[in-house]
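Researcher: Re-running this chain for the archive, since the previous output was lost when a drive failed. Same request as before.
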Amino acid sequence: MKELTEEQLRSAIESDPENPELYYELGLLIIKNLGKRFKRTLKSMNIHYSAKEQFLKASKLNRAEPKYHFELGKFYLSVDDYGRTINEFNVCLGLNYRVDECRKMVQKSEEKKLKEEDDRLNKLLKAIEKYPKKAKNYTQLGRLYAEKKKDKTKAFEYFQKARELDPNDTF
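Model: Regenerated structure tokens:
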């Protein structure tokens, strides 16, 4: 596809809103224009999210096109949303697209996700050390074990402790 301006792409989308390639190209152009200027400022993030919206539209119109999922995976990785990153790159793997690169991205994301969970766990344990009578810390720790660590026994122990400290505490 010949490189079009953002205005031309938006006009083409108005004429052909069912064409996923137009949304994809617009997303790429938005990212290209943002380029090295990208910083985590509100304006940059809004522009960055605008690119994501274009990739989402493209992928909804054609779920079998792996390059749309690949760009979504890169976006989610850039905003530290590791669960969605993993999902998008797994779609690419299922479609046999850029397999080696996608495997690396999934592995990197899984490692970061585990580190994030471990950091959260350590923060909660420190909070419990500092505030041993605060039921909410035990509740949050129980949720972490139940949802992320998949350890229902440990989760139940923390939920019980939260209930002992505050009988009105809701899980």
